[in-house]
User: Which sequence fits this backbone?
């Protein structure tokens, strides 16, 4: 099993409504993409200063399943819709669970 | 339930041995800190260019339990031991699971 993790920093002028739309877009995408074992996402809770603004963690049975998600047209459409208006910075890791 | 996620970029001269020591340090820490529901960590698998180098995802029953971990002396000792020699960049988010 592998976990894909991606974090986003949003532009300063991004609104709570835009962030909610982004979250709804992610949730609507999940049932349309095969191979997703678990999918969690949400905005930073504001516990610590200096954090990024949003994170996705997604679990897959294999790297190949992750790549199906990565390259799936429904996923690419969500990226195209939200990345430009919202995302100022991004960091990502894919790693093996259970090490 | 909340999930704490933190990603690290390592300095260019960090060795595979140092990364393995960091992972072992994290694994040894987990049973010494109360309130950790799940703890996953590992190096980036190299699937995508431009990724960060290492990630931790840790689940807690509450923000208060996360803060016990964040401030626990055994955790702080791991941070002190590895952050200086290894870590060039860091990004973090805490978020609610099941949104």
Assistant:
């Amino acid at each position: 099993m592998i976990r894909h993790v991606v974090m986003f920093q949003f532009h300063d002028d991004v609104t709570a409504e835009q962030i909610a739309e982004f979250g709804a877009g992610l949730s609507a995408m999940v049932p349309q993409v095969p191979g997703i074992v678990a999918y969690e996402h949400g905005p930073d809770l504001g516990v610590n200063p200096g954090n990024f603004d949003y994170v996705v963690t997604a679990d897959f049975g294999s790297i190949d399943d992750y790549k199906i998600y990565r390259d799936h047209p429904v996923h690419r459409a969500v990226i195209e819709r939200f990345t430009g208006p919202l995302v100022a910075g991004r960091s990502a890791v894919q790693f093996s669970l259970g090490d």
Q: What stands out?
A: The first helix of chain A runs from residue 16 to 29. The domain at 2-86 of chain A is CATH 3.30.70.100 (Alpha-Beta Plaits). Chain A has a mean pLDDT of 97. The interface with chain B takes residues 2-3, 5, 7, 9, 23, 40-45, 47-48, 50-55, 57, 63, 66-67, 70, 91-99 of chain A (CB under 8 Å).
